[in-house]
Structure formats: structure tokens, C-alpha cells
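lol ok so funny story. i was supposed to be doing the assay writeup but got distracted and ended up predicting the structure for this chain instead. priorities right. anyway since i did it might as well share w the group, maybe its usefull for someone
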Amino acid sequence: MKIVIIGAGNMGGAIARGLVAGNLIKAKDITVVDPVQASLDNLKDFHAEIKTTVSPAASDVKDADLILLAVKPWQIQKVAENIKCHLDYDKNMIVSIAAGVSFDALYGHLRKESMRDPVMFRVMPNTAIAIRESMTFVSSLNASEKQEETVLKIFNELGKAVLIPENQMGAATALGSCGTAFAMRYIRAASEGGVELGFYPDIAKEVVLQTVKGAVELLLANGTHPETEIDRVTTPGGVTIKGLNEMEHAGFTSSVIKGLKKSAG
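and the output, tada:
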């Protein structure tokens, strides 16, 4: 399977590296396009067999099974115009990770007269894709079930991927992408609390990180609801319930929900 990635920035570069580290796509079948030579050189240093170019050849685009648009939303139209004449919609699948760019907008940029409608995917990963631990959401248009399965397999190499309807992309962005920042904010707050309790900052952070990691692994291993695990460590009149109630009095749960809803728009 041949993949062309347009954009070698944080996301595009991370996806290329992650795919090379996986088992599904070979490095020699990945072409990365970016106008910044230094970004391409970094990828070459990572794996010499990755093909890099500042401008894609017509054959690179036409022969690709999947073309990944890993550029900023305001760059989508220009990128589409640059490659549109080389696209072959009987072969190419188009994948965009540009947040907020709808299928309608993509269709307007990419549709070619006298050709079948393009197979398109919108994909929303998060920054943990850099370590192949992303929560990635995928929506499709004009795609077959087999094509959907292929794209899901690709992004499952980079963490966990799920298929959702396009109208849930805003909610998915808030929960899985903005959610990374929300989790980081809890970690920061808990670390600062640890310092106030008497730990040195580096030790406090280490304790919080391992505690959060352990909580996540516990839920994944047991398949339980968070409240079930909370009940197991909450004894009547104990210190855990006192802390939980104090956080709830300060609006912990409602603040998280309000923040998610605000981010989802």
C-alpha cells in the first residue's frame, strides 16, 4: 500500500514515523511532501527509505492508495488545487486531518468533472500519535466498508481508532483531542497539590503520573466503570470520600462537563 503524506509538521511527521514503526506500511511505500527541507531531512534521519520531496510528482499522487492531507485548515484549498489535476479517484483515498474542514468543503476543493466522487475521510487524532497512543476518530464519505476497515487499521497502528459520523466530529475533538489538555491540567493541579502537601515538585509529578497511569490501566484491564473502582478505595468516613466531596463541592465534575461542551461548540 502506497501512502503520500502532504505536510511533515507535528502531525504529518508523527504519522510517518508511527507507520514506519508499525507493521502495516513499509517505509519505502511512504512519500512525505513538505516545502521545508529541514522537516524532510528529519524524517530521512529517522528512516532513510522514507521518500521525501518538496513537490510531489504526478506519479506519486496518481499511484497512491491513500493521500493524507496533514496541513492546517487554511492550507487545504491551496494543497487541493496543487494536486487535484493528478488525482485518480478510481484509486486514491483522500484523508484530511485538518480540524473543522467539513466533507462539503473538501468535496468542493477536490471534485473533478466527469470523474466519480472522491472517497474521503476526516480523521481527528491527538498529540499522543507521536508515541503511537492516539485516540483517533474517523469519518468517511463515499467509502466502502473495506476502505473504512483499511483506514481504521492504519490509525490503529498509531493508537486506537473508531469510526463515527461526521456530525460527532466536534464532540470527538473536545473529548479526545482537547481532552489531552484537560488531562494535563488535572496532572498539573495534582502535582501542585502534592508540593503543597510537602513533596518536591519532581517527586510530586512522578507520583501523580504513575497514579493516573495506574488508574487508566486498571480500568482497561478490568473493563469496569470508574465509579466501581472509586467505590473500592472509598471507605465510610475515610479520607478518599472527604477529598472527593470537597472537589465536587468546588464543581469538579460539572466543570469538566462544561469545559467539554464549550470546546465542542
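The CA atoms of residues 139 and 165 lie 6 Å apart. The beta strands are 3-6, 30-33, 51-53, 66-69, 93-96, 119-124, 134-141, 159-163.
back to the writeup now i swear
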